[in-house]
Amino acid sequence: MTKNNDKTLLIVLPYGIGWKSIINEENLEMLTNSGLKIILLCEPNMIESNNPNVIIKTLKKIPRTKSEIAVGLLRNYVFADTSKPHSETLKIKISELDSSHTFLSIIRKSIGKFFARSTTIKNILAWSDSVFFSNSEYDDLFSKFSPDFIFVTYPFSFYTYPILRHAHKSKIPILGYVPSWDNLTSKWEVPVKLNKLIVWNNIMKQEAINFLGYSDDSVSITGVPQFDIHSNRSSLLDRGKFINNLHGDENKKILLYATGTAQLSDSEPFIVKMIYDMIQNNKFDHPCQLLLRVHPRRSLSDFDDLIDKPDVLIQTPGKASKEFQDSGYVWKSDFTDYSTLSNTLYHADVMINVASTITIESCLFDTPVVNIGFDANLDLDFNRSVKRHFQYSHYLDIVESNGVKIANSEQELSEFINRYLNDPTLESTGRNLIVDNQCSFRDGKSSERLLRYIIDFTKEYSV
C-alpha cells in the first residue's frame, strides 16, 4: 500500500455514538497503515484506541452567536432558492419559519425570493461568514498537530463550523461524509464548501449536485456503512430463541413498532396504544404481540402506559445512559445491540413506523413495512402533522417505490397490518427497489469503501 509519508488526518466526530462499527480499532489501523497519523476529535469516552498513531481529543461544543444564526437564516431562509430540484423539504421548512419569523417572512416575500438565484448575494453571504465568524478555540489544536486533511463525519452539525472555517481559511482539504439520506435537503447549508463528499446512493449524489452545487466528480457513493452489520446473516438467531430472549410467545406474530424521536411525531404514543388495542380486541387474523422498539433519542417514559401490559415486549437500543445526553441520546449501544436490531428486523412479521430510516433497514430483510400517515385523533397543523414527512424530498423515493403502505386512518392501519400478516410477500418487489435505490450495495463492504475513499482523498491532496 502506498504510504502518505506521515501526513496527519483530523477526523471530526460531532455525534460519534453511531460510529463504533466504523471508526473502530481495526479500521483505524487500516488508516494508520496507509501512513496516516490520526487525530480524533469527538465526545469524551466515545472512542478508545491503543494505536500509537492515533490521538484522541475532545470536541468542544461551541454555541453559535446571534449574528451567526442571523446570517444562517439569511442564507438558508430569506434568500433560499426553492426553484432548484429537490426543494420539497426546503419549501416545507420555509413555511414553518414563515409562521415563527414574521419580520423575516416579510423580507423574504418582498425581497428575498427575487434575489434567491443571485450569485452575488450568495457570494456576499459566504464572504460575510468567512470574515466575521472565526473562533480561536481550536487554534492550539491546529498549531500543535498541523493536520494536512480533515474528514468530518457530519458536516451539518453546527459544532463542526469553527473547524471547517479554520480549515477553509488555512486551505486544508476537507472530505465530508453525509451520514443520513435526509441531510442534504433538510439541514442548513454548510457555510464552507467541502472539497469532496461521500454519500450513500445516486439519489443523494444528485441532491449534492443539483441542490447544493457540487460537481459530479466531487461526490462519491459508498453505500450505507451503518447497515453493513445487517449483511452478517450468521448473527441471526432461530426465531424461537429470539422470541424467548424477549420473553415473548412463539405462537404469536410480531408487530414491531419502531418509534422516532419526540420531534418526529406528537401522536406516536396514541398510535402505539391504538395498535395495542387492535391486538387486544382481536382485529387481526392471527394472534399478535407488540414489540415496541424505542429510538436512541427517545425516552421510554413516553410509553409508560404500555409497560408490563400483556402482549407487549419492550426493546431499548442499548442501556440507559446520561453519558451522551448533550447530543440527545438517551441510550448507549454496543455491538450486541446492533446484532439485536438485525434479529428484530428479520423476525418481525410487520414493521410499523412514521417515516424513519428504519424503513430502509426493514426492506433489507424484506420485512413488510407500514408507515403512519395520520395523527391519531389529534388536530395538528401541517407543520406538526406526520403528513409533512411524506412530502419531504428524501422520502419521495419511498413513497413512489410502492414498497411500503402508508396508513392514512385507523382503519387502513388495521387493514394493511392484516394483509401483510396473511401474505408477507406483498410489495416485496417495491422493497427490493428501495434497497437498490437507497443502499446502492448489499455486500456489507460500505465501510471498506468509505475507508478507501478517505485514503484516496489524502493521496489526491498530498503535496
Kindly describe this structure.
The protein has 463 residues and is an alpha/beta fold. It contains 17 helices and 15 strands. The protein folds into 3 domains: 8-62 and 135-223 and 444-460, Rossmann fold, CATH 3.40.50; 66-131; 229-439, Glycogen Phosphorylase B (Rossmann fold). Strand 13, helix 13 (358-364) and strand 14 (369-372) form a beta-alpha-beta unit. Helix 3 crosses helix 4 (102-110) and helix 13 crosses helix 16. The relative contact order is 0.12.
Radius of gyration: 23 Å
> What summary fits the major beta sheet?
7 strands, parallel
Supply the CATH architecture of the largest domain.
Answer: 3-Layer(aba) Sandwich
What is the averaged pLDDT score? 92
Low-confidence stretches: none
CATH fold call of the largest domain: Rossmann fold
- Counting helices, strands and paired strands, the structural category is alpha/beta
CATH domain class of the largest domain: Alpha Beta
* Neighbour order of strands in the largest sheet: 3-2-1-4-5-6-7
What's the CATH H-level homologous superfamily of the largest domain? Answer: Glycogen Phosphorylase B
Number of strand elements: 15
Strand content: 5-15%
Name the shape in a single word.
globular
